[in-house]
Amino acid sequence: MQTPDQTQTGKVRSPNKIRNIAIIAHIDHGKTTMLDGLLKQSNVFRENQVVEERVMDSYDQERERGITIFAKHTSVEYKDYKINIIDTPGHADFSGEVERVLGMVDTVLLIVDAKEGPMPQTRFVLSKSLKMGLCPIVVLNKIDRPHANPERVLNATFDLFVELGANDQQLDFKYCYASGLKGYAYIDLERPQQDFHELFDLILSVPPRLEGRLDQPFLLQASTIGYDDYVGRQACGRILQGSVRKGKTLLHIDRDGKQTSVSITRIEGHHGLVKVEMEEAGAGDIVLLSGIPDVMIGDTICDPQNVKTLPPITLDEPTVAIEIWVNSGPLVGRSGKHVTLNKIKDRLLKEKRANISYRITPYDDKVTVAGRGELHLAILLEAMRREGFEFCVSKPQVILKEIEGQKHEPIDRVHIEVPEEFSGPVIEHLSRKRGEMQHLSTDVHGISHIDFLIPTRGLMGYRNEFLTVTKGLGILTSIFEGYGPHKGDIPGRPRGVLVSMCSGKSSSYALFSLQERGELFITAGDEVYEGMIVGEHNRDSDLLVNPTRAKQLTNVRAAGKDENLILSPPRRFGLEEAITYIEVDEWIEATPDTIRLRKIILTEVERKKSK
């Protein structure tokens, strides 16, 4: 559906009639559901149109994992205003997506669960917003949930504003109570409403943050990069001042200061879930510009008669790195079509150009990829698998810094909610991993709330152990806190692995006897090779096994019948679980069809280097 201002009429909307907002929240506080409701009530869909839940989560991994990974744009019409909305990820690993888009908006909707209150990611995204001078609108969501306590959560949110150093204007934030699932929001608890009109009015009450005018020279900074099969790379950003028409000649200035004359071939905006072509766009609007083939995030697009270079977009540095090699295993090439190092390098360098939250460094024999966490890295690796790549991956290593002559490492702030009976084992485990408890309280429902500061190294691989200890009833969330002095050695995986000593197809007969030695990662009929990890040992040492051994057949007939072979279901790894499970002398072999773990032999020099 197109509105008159968005069709190719050439009309440019006044900057005062445009509002740009981002929706930020801790994971699972209802941000994407809230956006679904805003879109439906703004009439961007046909009456008979079938609309899926979490409609903005269009990427396949987003739907599978139930999280938002990439920041995405949409816009709605309310009264005579255009409201551009940016949906941002809620997981801490994708905080680079949030940082990148905050410079484009006038305000943010800070979604806070009316039962859980502010969480670690709430602190992070709010801190970034306050530092950029934004005045957030607080939305106390899920007020229809049992045990919701909006007044307590509102006070806790105000305390968080104070703790983060908000100024007087930011402390006087506007707020409302809402249920994204049921589709209503209201300011006064005594006057409940049945729709989102009061929330829309709150958005309109925030004046534009940037005072760009239409009569000024054109200026835009690329905050994200899009791609179209017909016109190639597209620069997406907010027009800071001036206007642009299709066919206009502009100046592209990259991060090195190189200036290139470009001609705009297409201008696109958003309306609902679709892109709409525009003949002209002006200050305050968020658009995609085509015709700039080498544009990168942070580049400046300006008028050739008024050259101005904007400061680059800076993100917090990555904290975890992995190494990627070609697949050198004996089963290479059976399912993947891209197996050479050159193909892998090309794919990763393409990612580097479009996503500055990764730090990608190619070498002669490998590529190093640094990111914000295991999930951040696993999303990229999983995308490569689905595109037909095969490769080997190392165990993630934290990125250390030397500060004032002392070695420092990344520290995470961890928030845990568990039934009270499990709090003791959780505290004991995290303390062994060099964690320092900051807060412990138990509410009237018997739920313990625990805050820890713990080295990122200690948290790697702990989440599966945490789910086991808490019997799946615990909630653990973490966010990067900063760098602190190195905490020394941290205990690694408590058990060894079962390593195949031969190649071939695994047999039920062999696996039946091996499952007494530990948990298996394979099932009968799977291809194995020498050095492949086929299971986890019950003890803390590695064990060489033969998973291909078959029962010896003789012509001697026995009384009775053979034993019935019943195998336990194998443990299957996703990439995220695999990269946190392996140790420094182990690799992951990732292919489109399967994920295998393998043992490698390190020389003494390499072993010292890996430590």
Outline of this structure?
By secondary structure, the protein is an alpha+beta fold.
Characterization of this structure:
The protein has 611 residues and is α+β, with helices and mostly antiparallel strands. 22% of the residues lie in helices and 31% in strands. It contains 15 helices and 36 strands. Strands 19, 20, 21, 22, 23, 29, 31, 33, 34, 35 and 36 form an eleven-stranded mixed β-sheet that branches. A hairpin with a 5-residue loop joins strand 12 (249-253) and strand 13 (259-263). Helix 9 crosses helix 14.
Which descriptors apply to this entry?
single chain; eleven-stranded mixed β-sheet; 31% strand; Alpha-Beta Plaits; 15 helices; nine-stranded antiparallel β-sheet; alpha+beta; Elongation Factor Tu (Ef-tu), domain 3
